[in-house]
């Protein structure tokens, strides 16, 4: 099957284009896409653990720990021991982190709106449904643990 006919290639190119564009618009805010995703999810889930945040952001726990260390070094987040589970660190945005996230989110939303604006409401609904179907089929194809 030629590469031009492989849906996976088209999905990957679209994801790469979205990621590269978001990286470019987030650069002036001083964030990577992973850092932005972490701040965005933290804004809605204060106190979340690094492991749970990694799952939300679609990265490994070690990657998330690196992201969080960099954000903490910039004083955009604080990490404190959980009240009952001392080995679990709760992560929260600082005031500065919230301000940076708001600026970065406005930049990312412009990209999302430009993308959405290329489609009619019906096309967006169809695309969303088709992508959801892709996810379902791919998850069904994934082998279980060995």
UniProtKB/TrEMBL annotation:
Organism expressing this protein natively: Streptomyces pluripotens
The record's PANTHER family line, in alphabetical order, gives: HTH-TYPE TRANSCRIPTIONAL REPRESSOR YETL, TRANSCRIPTIONAL REGULATOR, MARR FAMILY
Its domain of life reads Bacteria
GO BP of this protein: response to stress
**Which protein, by its recorded name, is this?**
MarR family transcriptional regulator
The UniProt entry, under PROSITE patterns, shows: HTH_MARR_2
- Which GO molecular function terms does the record list? DNA-binding transcription factor activity
Annotated HTH marR-type domain residues: 4-136
Tell me which Pfam families the record gives.
Answer: MarR_2
